[in-house]
């Protein structure tokens, strides 16, 4: 089966190379306007990519685990991208899609359900654990890149990440990513709620989380 990993970017939202999209989002040259169009292009690309992923999964071009990880990441990116353009003009994603004639029914279904199709609406589902882990990795890394670095903002997500990884039987007991997350939890346990990580710590934590996320994806790939 072909891998779908290349379709989903490692950081931030997807970028589109669709010429028609570029034309629709042509900038006026003013800084604020340029940012507005860039944000719309980001959302357009995420929705298109999600549509492509759904089609790839239906055609058996990706494994369920690859699909779940990629879809979970795209849904996180969608939420972030939509917040950037939400306004009176675009009060809903449907309004955005209508404005730019985006025909992506499969992507719209994923957005409405807010979960990959592989995740059943029940407790204890393995795929749900995988999706939650992907979402937590992305959320924490995004917070750090946005310079959110106080203990009380990061510790809850890190703790949830650790607990969710411990619940997933696919992850081996000696998985390095769990050890790294637990080390950071120990570091933060000695901090006050308002204490912040310094620049060096932020850089190291991002590196550790990215390494752990990549290792987690390898575990998923090897388990298929």
UniProtKB/TrEMBL annotation:
Keywords: Endosome, Protein transport, Transport
GO cellular component, one term: ESCRT I complex
Biased composition (Basic and acidic residues): 21-31
Subcellular location(s) of the protein: Endosome
Stretches assigned to the VPS28 N-terminal domain: 1-121
SUPFAM superfamilies: Endosomal sorting complex assembly domain, VPS28 C-terminal domain-like
Any one of the GO BP annotations: endosome transport via multivesicular body sorting pathway
Gene3D superfamilies: 1.20.120.1130, 1.20.1440.200
Region (Disordered): 1-31
Alphabetized Pfam families for the sequence: VPS28
Residue ranges of domain VPS28 C-terminal in the record: 125-221
Self-association state and partner proteins as the record states: Component of the ESCRT-I complex (endosomal sorting complex required for transport I).
Family: Belongs to the VPS28 family.
Family annotation (PANTHER family): VACUOLAR PROTEIN SORTING 28, ISOFORM 2 VPS28, VACUOLAR PROTEIN SORTING-ASSOCIATED PROTEIN 28 HOMOLOG
Function: Component of the ESCRT-I complex, a regulator of vesicular trafficking process.
Protein name: Vacuolar protein sorting-associated protein 28 homolog
Species, as recorded: Ixodes scapularis (Black-legged tick)
